[in-house]
Amino acid sequence: MGYDIERFVGYVNEGLLCSICRDVLEDPLQAPCEHAFCTACIHGWLVHHSNCPEDRQMIDVSLLRPLYRYMRNDLNRLQLHCKNREYGCEMVCSLESIDRHERECEYSQIACSNAGCTVQIERRNLDGHLAVCEYRSRECPNGCGYTILSAEDTQHNCVAELRTELELLRSEMICRVEEAKHEMESRLDSQRRHMVQKESILQNEIEELKSQMSRMMSDVRSLMAAERQHRQELEQAELEKREL
Q1: What radius of gyration do the chain's Cα atoms show?
Q2: What is the pLDDT of residues 80-116, one digit of tens each?
Q3: For 105-157, where are the alpha helices, taking DSSP H only?
Q4: Distance between CA atoms of 49 and 223, rounded to whole angstroms?
Q5: Helix, coil or strand: residue 75
Q6: Are the C-beta atoms of 96 and 105 separated by less than 8 Å?
Q7: H or E segment and range at residue 74
Q8: Which helix (H) or strand (E) holds 187?
Q9: Using CB atoms within 10 A of its CB, is residue 75 exposed (0-12), middle (13-18) or buried (19+)?
Q10: What is the mean pLDDT of each run of 10 residues along the chain (244 residues)?
Q11: CA-to-CA distance for 21 and 148, rounded, in angstroms?
Q12: Is 96 helix (H, G, I), strand (E, B) or coil?
């Protein structure tokens, strides 16, 4: 749908009106036959038709093009009232800048920002409403530190709230202690397995060293025996030599 022609100040050229809704073009597109439409209007039309609503020439979405530049310039220069005119806004500005103004207009109807509140109020009155809104939140005046809604004032019990918080903290602490305990046990098990494995390796190395030591001692004894025998043979040879 286009912009309501009643909002515009002065004369609006017929060529700047949508051929479907007959309001001033909004986000315009142009067919090859040079008839112009609001984007939403022509897309909706082509869902059920395949021709131009003005001259019945065949058209397709792929054939639609942006408006000629001179027509866009004429369109953007049109002056119109803010949509919030009925609420008191007297702003008149160009079509090119109307969206920016209306996003910031003090007379725009906006929703209260408090969760649960369904009030729609003018932007300029929002601060005043927030100060008295029954869904506004604030810190408990009794010092418990809780944030409460005004609607819950009569139901708020500091002791009960703190007790609930304490129970939650206790439960959380127990969970953390259990997690830390399991983690430490897991680490100890891992270290124990590692130590057992290291012990087994060291034990094997000790046995290997003992075996090597035993072989070395056996070799030493064999050498000593061979040396004694060799000495005896030398002594015997020396005796024979003396006898001769």
Answers
A1: 49
A2: 999 999 989 999 999 999 999 999 999 998 898 887 8
A3: 126-132
A4: 115
A5: helix
A6: no
A7: helix 69-77
A8: helix 158-243
A9: buried
A10: 91 92 94 93 93 91 92 94 92 93 91 85 88 74 60 60 81 91 90 89 90 89 88 85 80
A11: 50
A12: helix
Give me the amino acid identity at 192. Answer: R
Token readout for 109 is: 């109807």
Long-range (24+ apart) CB contacts under 8 A made by 61-64 are 63/31, 63/32, 64/29, 64/30, 64/31
Q: How far is CA 133 from CA 80, 129, 142, 149, 211, in A?
A: 35, 6, 21, 10, 91
Q: What is residue 144's predicted lDDT score, i.e. its pLDDT?
A: 63
Predicted pLDDT at 236: 86
Residue type, 132: V
Read off the pLDDT of residues 156-179 as tens digits, 9 standing for 90 and up: 666 677 777 788 888 999 999 999
The residue among 135, 163, 162 whose CA lies nearest residue 146 is: 162
* Length reported for the chain: 244
